[in-house]
Amino acid sequence: MTYVDGFVLAVPKANVEAYKEMATLAGSIWMELGALSYVEAIAEDTPYGEVTSFPRAVQLKDDEITVFSWITYDSKAKRDEVMAKVMEDERLKPYMQNMPFDGKRMIFGGFESIVQY
């Protein structure tokens, strides 16, 4: 079964194009270094829930949009190997110093697949 890294974050609407630029570069790097897939998706149908929701989770502001992303790998060991290389990749350094979103409100985690088709 594959291993999945998942992310949910809030991007200012004014920064969506800058985020797409960063995500496009990041995706090509992740794939080059061994990820199986890389997906970035902008919210289209994410209502604000009474108790929980994607917008609540990232403390979404009126001028922001929710982004849901995931990267898949062969295994956790492969993920750890790829992630170490990505974090050292010089091509991403400019974005790490000036991210087009508030990284403090990003939710992320690694998941082992239990059902997969």
From TrEMBL:
<dbReference type="Pfam" id="PF07237">
    <property type="entry name" value="DUF1428"/>
</dbReference>
<dbReference type="InterPro" id="IPR009874">
    <property type="entry name" value="DUF1428"/>
</dbReference>
<protein>
    <submittedName>
        <fullName>DUF1428 family protein</fullName>
    </submittedName>
</protein>
<dbReference type="InterPro" id="IPR011008">
    <property type="entry name" value="Dimeric_a/b-barrel"/>
</dbReference>
